[in-house]
Amino acid sequence: MKNLKQLDLSGNNLGGSLPYCLGNLSSLQLLDVYENQFTGNIASGPLTNLISLEFLSLSNNLFEVPTSMKPFLNHSSLKFFSSENNRLVIEPAAFDNLIPKFQLVFFRLSSRPTSEALNVDIPDFLYYQYDLITLDLSHNNITGMFPSWLLKNNTRLEQLYMSENSFVGTLSLPDDSYPNMIELDISNNNMNGQIPKDICLIFPNLWTLRMAKNGFTGCIPSCLGNISSLSFLDLSNNQLSTVKLGQLTTLSFLNLSNNNLGGNNFWGQISDFPLYGWKMWIVLDLSYNQFSGMLPRWFVNSTDLRLINLSKNHFKGPIHRDFCKLGQLVYLDLSENNLSGYIPSCFSSTSLTYVHLSKNRLSGPLTYGFYNSSSLVTMDLRDNNFTGSIPNWIGNLSSLSVLLLRANHFDGELPVQLCLLEQLSILDVSKNQLSGPIPSCLGNLTFMESYQKAFVDLRVGFGSQSIERAYYETMGPPLVDSMYSLGKGLWLNFTEVIEFRTKNMYYGYKGNILSYMSGIDLSNNNFVEAIPPEFGNLSEILSLNLSHNNLTGSVPVTFSNLKQIESLDLSYNNLNGVIPPQLTEVTTLEVFSVAHNNLSGKTPERKFQFGTFDESCYEGNPFLCGPPLRNNCSEEAESQLVPNDEQGDDGFIDMDLFYISFGVCYTIVVMTIATVLYINPYWRRRWLYFIEGCIDTCYYFVVASFRKFSNFRR
């Protein structure tokens, strides 16, 4: 097929190396092998012979790609080159300073996240490129100062992505203006100093500016308010201390989290924020700062607002009913403030998916707040002062995966409607006043992996001009069809963090680890009766904590079916009987405790994981014996304390042994008293006086009672 001009093999999961015969396609202009499993070093493959190539996409494969672009130096027609998520290799120094014959319009070169980090410099061939519109060198750990010469050489540059490298020093920009630049991303580097005050003059038409996760200090330039096109601004995770923005009338995404911004440096209170009244908000993140005062309400008319994060500040007062107007809100985080009062009953948007209100002073019952929030995946109300019972309508939240109610004042029984939540994987109601039996139907939960509880995906309808359009304007329409669908919107991805206690510690779970995490914590309540044996059906659960309750009965033998569990805490209850020896079959346990119960018999055999548990795991059980405890089991005791199938779960005492022991003790006591009275005359007289007094007392009591009864009859 020597006349073939376009070949698209993308998204097919093809593997192996590229067939060498591809080099025979001398007329090929477009080759797209995006999203496959191809391997091999492209420097020794067939691509070096395809000198007519104009468009080449190698992204998301297993190629080895030289940073020097040596295999393509003679490809004079090459305009579009994309190699993302491959393994980069550094060519020997002999290939440096080679002048390529191509002039690229689009160039993307980044390594796989799992690849070994390379400390490399900017590829030398870029010194000879003057027509670039889009340049992406992110995720490469490139060292040195920010390469401002790239801007000088490429005056038509529209998109520059340099995130997740190792650039150091201050951000030095050219003096010239670059009106074509619409997207600049230098986040995740090691730059410091102040943000250049003339950045708005240099890039007057920016749509997107990302400078997060650096060490920038000082003031946020006020001139950013003069960029009328700016829609996306992310300055999070720096050391900025003051902000004096103008009227940003087009801003839709603002992230100033993890700085040192405060109310005193924000023109007084946050209610004076310069974007007051702006209705085009989509994302607003001011978390991890020092803002104070009442919760702002100037964004409640933003009908497209999807994410609000005001956590870890010093806001106070109630959550106003105006928040109910945010009908498109997906993510709300007001945690770790000083908020008080009730949750508005109208607060039940059907689009609301993630709610974090933990570590405030919110109070009152959960009446009908979140009643209609059928899309809710995470509800975190930990460490507040909520009262009353857990409402039954919680069973209507069919998408709920994470429910955290720890450290409140909830009472009553745990509602059986929780068993209707098929997606539930993390349940924490510890440190409340819940009572009654534990619903056995909780054993029917499946605890499957959930991507949605770990990642927040938002698609918004703003962003920079698509990279395909930049290529389209240069190359013409024939080559754009295969890439058209990629440039219709901007996807925003946020990683959720969930705090959950397991293995005797609090951990913050996030990302892929959170998607696999599952656990139940019912500790520090007043639950009674036996542990439901149905809990043995929770074969995928990783953590189970039932400690500090009033549970009775035995440890269910079915717990031996918990093949994935890593932490099991049954301490501080009233459990009795023996510890099922079958528990040693659970080889995934890292933390195990049955301390401070009424268990008896021999401890489990010290093999597999049970060989690692020390005395503290069993202490506080006076009738328990065997290693690692110090009291050894006698042969007689072991034979008597072996569990009997006919014996109930309500006790562990051998009744025949009890009767014999009681009879022997009674006889000894009587004989001891008789011996003392026979030997000692004084005590014998005192004993007789005592008996005589008792007889007289009984006599007069009977006579008096008889007379009262006779008078009553008359």
Q: Characteristics of this structure?
A:
714 residues; 25-stranded parallel β-sheet; 12% helix; alpha/beta
Kindly describe this structure:
The protein has 714 residues and is of the alpha/beta class. Helix content is 12%, strand content 26%. The radius of gyration is 37 Å and the shape is elongated. About 7% of the residues have low confidence.
Q: Brief description of this entry?
A:
By secondary structure, the protein is of the alpha/beta class. Helices cover 12% and strands 26% of the residues. The strands form six sheets. It has a 25-stranded parallel β-sheet that branches. It has a nine-stranded parallel β-sheet with strand order 21-23-25-27-29-31-33-39-41, with no helix packed on it. Strands 10-12-14-16-18 form a five-stranded parallel β-sheet, with no helix packed on it.
Estimated structural class = alpha/beta
Instruction: Assign an overall shape.
Output: elongated
- N-C termini distance: 128 Å
Strands, count: 46
Helix share bin: 10-25%
Radius of gyration from CA coordinates: 37 Å
Q: The biggest beta sheet, please?
A: 25 strands, parallel
How many helices? 7
Spans where pLDDT lies below 50 across 5 or more residues? 265-272, 462-489, 640-652
Mean pLDDT: 84
Strand content: 25-35%
Topology (elements, then pairings):
Layout: E1 6-8, E2 15-17, E3 30-32, E4 37-41, E5 55-57, E6 62-66, E7 80-89, E8 106-111, E9 134-136, E10 143-144, H1 149-153, E11 159-161, E12 166-170, E13 183-185, E14 190-194, H2 199-202, E15 208-210, E16 215-220, E17 232-234, E18 239-243, E19 253-255, E20 283-285, E21 292-294, E22 307-309, E23 314-317, E24 331-333, E25 338-341, E26 354-356, E27 361-364, E28 378-380, E29 385-389, E30 402-404, E31 409-413, E32 426-428, E33 433-437, E34 455-460, H3 467-475, E35 490-495, E36 497-502, E37 505-510, H4 511-516, E38 519-521, E39 526-530, E40 543-545, E41 550-552, E42 567-569, E43 576-577, E44 591-593, E45 598-602, E46 623-625, H5 635-640, H6 655-679, H7 681-713
Parallel strand pairs: 1-3, 2-4, 3-5, 4-6, 5-7, 6-7, 7-8, 8-9, 9-11, 10-12, 11-13, 12-14, 13-15, 14-16, 15-17, 16-18, 17-19, 19-20, 20-22, 21-23, 22-24, 23-25, 24-26, 25-27, 26-28, 27-29, 28-30, 29-31, 30-32, 31-33, 32-38, 33-39, 38-40, 39-41, 40-42, 42-44, 43-45, 45-46
Antiparallel strand pairs: 34-35, 36-37
Helix pairs in contact: 6-7
